[in-house]
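Cross-check.
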Amino acid sequence: EDAIVSFDFMPEFHLWGGHLLVPVDRANSAGPFFQIPWNYAGVAVGALPMEGPTGRNNGAVIWGNITGGMLSYYAGAFDNGNVAASPLFSGRLRLALLDAEPGFWGNGSYYGDKDILSFDIGGQVQDNGSSARDAMGNITTSKTYAEVNLGGLFEKKIPGGGWFTAEGAYYHF
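Predicted model, tokenized:
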């Protein structure tokens, strides 16, 4: 699903290009393999950020981990396979207050391996990225698409091998 050319200059600065996850929120950075399966059940189609097939898109991302992964940033531009269209700009900041969350990929749960209190903010914008119907009922794509999201994850180890997880997110389109 991924085809990435990476230039990893230092932990604080990476440049990746190719077909990769779009950095916008925890759900997408976790991908389909690193989130609790029921986290996003029942979410309406169109109520999630633009991502492309399987959360991936063609583009480039600069990203880095500051202070060992306690603060991470991600910013990218994507074309969704249509280089004639306006690019989709996407970004995310993540602040981990207990255990660090280093790396590009993320988790929707650490299943008791870490104590996590993490907050993130993400957003996207694309000129002519939203479609609407005009007065004649024709679909047009003349509107700017914009989205901002806030999220948080709390996970605490419980003695004896268990853990407690709470996660929430707010999206505004």
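Strands lie at 3-10, 13-21, 56-66, 71-78, 88-96, 116-133, 139-158, 162-172. Helices lie at 26-30. Passed to J.P. for a second look.
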